[in-house]
Amino acid sequence: MPWAHRDIAWLDRNLVIRLEKLQAQWNEHGAEAPDSSLVRWLGLDSFLVSPMLFALEGGRRRPPTDWELRVELNRAFRQLSQVLPSAKVQRVGAGHRRALRGMLLEGAEARERHIALLVRAARLVHNKVTVAERRALEERVIRLANELEVRTDSLVVLSLLSCIYDSGPNVPDHRSAKPGRAVVKPGPNYSEEDAYNALADLYALELLHNAHALFSNQRAVLYTADIGMASMWTATQPCTRQATHLPNGRSRTTVNFRLDQGLFPALLPDDVAALSQRLAK
After folding, report:
1. SS3 for 65?
2. Is 52 exposed, middle or buried (0-12, 13-18, 19+ CB in 10 A)?
3. To which H or E segment does residue 251 belong?
4. Which helix (H) or strand (E) holds 10?
5. Nearest CA to 223 among 41, 70, 75?
6. 251 strand-pairing partners
7. For the chain, which has fewer Cβ within 10 Å, the N-terminal or C-terminal residue?
8. CA torsion sign, 231 to 229 to 235 to 113?
9. How far apart are CA 164 and CA 232, in angstroms?
10. Are strands 88-89 and 48-50 parallel, antiparallel or unpaired?
11. Residue-wise pLDDT tens for the chain (281 aa)?
């Protein structure tokens, strides 16, 4: 497994691109790249810095081809090595690259169902929802998920429901207070490309969940410049993790987290509990 390293830090695409721009500014002004103090300040001095999330997302708002995966891995490795010269940047060889490609192919069918759900449902939840409209819209999203065979306890569905229950007089307008909306970014003309971008963020969080479940002694961390991803991670902090190793050499992970007002800021605790019970049916 290419991510099975005890101390690994994944830098997602938006952060690597931000570092690229920073490097360009230094070059424009004739400045040298920072020394190891930046690595220590970021807390990366004790981690293997991985370019894998950058490459897995790809740059064309769709899953990368094998050739694109190789190009993106090389690009991220080069940029991270330049901007963070004292960091231990992970080299992803051919074997690990094939494993990453295999992950993309294995998840293709589920990804298509999730994209179809987001395209249809994100257009429904882009406006603020009144209290009287909430339950009907919730039921509509759940019905769409069932039609497309998407689990109602998946991060995709929970993110859409978060958009329904994030409007109210006591809910701040800041994106960090509305994690589902910050990740999904719903709109009236929501496209498959928009859906893919949202799924890439949710997949990164699932990968982090799974890594912690599979490798209990691992200190995997995710670095991002996306406040939506950060707020979604905060709202879905795992309370239990379990890994089951199957006879065919594969593993199945189960990650549980409590639903609360972090994900549904407009609901009271009793309302969140009632929603949780509805999702469990």
Report:
1. coil
2. buried
3. strand 251-256
4. strand 8-11
5. 41
6. 245
7. C
8. positive
9. 15
10. parallel
11. 666 667 889 999 988 888 888 878 877 877 766 666 778 888 888 899 999 999 999 988 899 999 999 999 999 999 899 888 889 999 999 988 998 898 899 889 999 999 999 999 999 999 988 899 999 999 999 999 999 999 999 999 999 999 999 988 888 888 889 999 999 999 999 999 999 999 999 999 988 888 777 777 777 889 998 888 899 988 988 777 787 888 877 778 788 888 999 999 999 999 999 999 999 87
- Dist CA 118 CA 188 (whole Å): 12
* CB proximity list for 234: less than 8 A, separation 6 or greater: 179, 262
| Maximum C-alpha span of the chain | 61
User: Taking CA 39 as the corner, what is the angle to CA 36 and CA 41, rounded to the nearest 5 degrees?
Assistant: 110
- The full set of domain ranges for the chain reads 8-106, 108-280
> Nearest CA to 156 among 98, 203, 93?
203
Closest by CA position to 89, among listed 139, 124, 17, 39: 39
Which tokens belong to 68? 């694109």
